[in-house]
Amino acid sequence: MRIYLLVLVVALSTPPVIPDSSMAKDLSQYAWRNRLLTVFTPTAQDAKFVEQRALLEGEQRRLSERELVIIEIIGEEVLLSGESAVIEDANSLRERFGVKADEFAVRLVGKDTGVKLRSDSPLVPAQLYALIDAMPMRLREMKERAD
C-alpha cells in the first residue's frame, strides 16, 4: 500500500513533459486547414520527381485555391514550399505513408487527414484538381465562395 502511495505522490509531483511546439511540429498542424500533396523521391534528380515538379510549376494559384500544401521528401530532407521544413523527419513520413526510401510516390491527403490518392507516377494537375473538386468539403468551399 505504501509503495502505491509513494508512486502516486511522485507521479503527481512530477511536472508533465510538454513538447516545445516549435520543435514538435507534425502533419497534424494541417488537419482541417489544408490538403497535402506529399511527393517522395530518393533524389532530386529522379526523372519522375523532375516531371512532377515541372507539372506543378506555375500552378500556385490553383493549388492555393484548393488550400493544397506541397511537401517534398527528397532523400532525408523534407521541404515545404521548396524550403527546408521542421515537420516530421523523412523516415517517419515514409513509414506513415508506406513509401520505401528508394521509390517515387505521391500521396494526396485530405483536410480530414485521410489519404485520398496513392500514386507511383507523377500527377497531372487536371487529374489532381478533378479529384479535389469532387470532394464534399471542397464542394462546400466552392459553394460558400460563390455565395
Question: What does this 3D model show about the protein?
Answer:
It is built from six helices and six strands. The protein has a single domain, classed as Glutaredoxin, CATH 3.40.30.10. The longest helix has 12 residues, at 2-13. It has 147 residues and is of the alpha+beta class. Mean pLDDT is 84; it is low at 3-24. The protein has helices spanning 2-13, 47-56, 60-65, 90-97, 125-133, 136-146; strands at residues 35-41, 68-74, 77-80, 83-84, 105-109, 115-119. Strands 4-3-2-1-5-6 form a six-stranded mixed β-sheet, sandwiched between helices.
List the helices and strands and how they pair.
Blueprint lengths: L1 H12 L21 E7 L5 H10 L3 H6 L2 E7 L2 E4 L2 E2 L5 H8 L7 E5 L5 E5 L5 H9 L2 H11 L1
Parallel strand pairs: 1-2
Antiparallel strand pairs: 1-5, 2-3, 3-4, 5-6
> What is the end-to-end distance?
66 Å
Beta strand %? 15-25%
* CATH level-two architecture: 3-Layer(aba) Sandwich
In CATH terms, the superfamily is Glutaredoxin
The count of strands amounts to: 6
Weakly predicted, low-confidence segments: 3-24
Strand line-up of the largest beta sheet: 4-3-2-1-5-6
Radius of gyration: 20 Å
CATH class: Alpha Beta
Annotated CATH topology: Glutaredoxin
Specify the overall morphology. Answer: globular
Q: Based on helices, strands and strand pairing, what is the structural class?
A: alpha+beta
Profile the largest sheet: 6 strands, mixed
Q: How much is the average pLDDT?
A: 84
Give the count of helical stretches.
6
How many domains would you count in the coordinates? 1
The helix/strand series, from N terminus to C terminus, equals HEHHEEEHEEHH
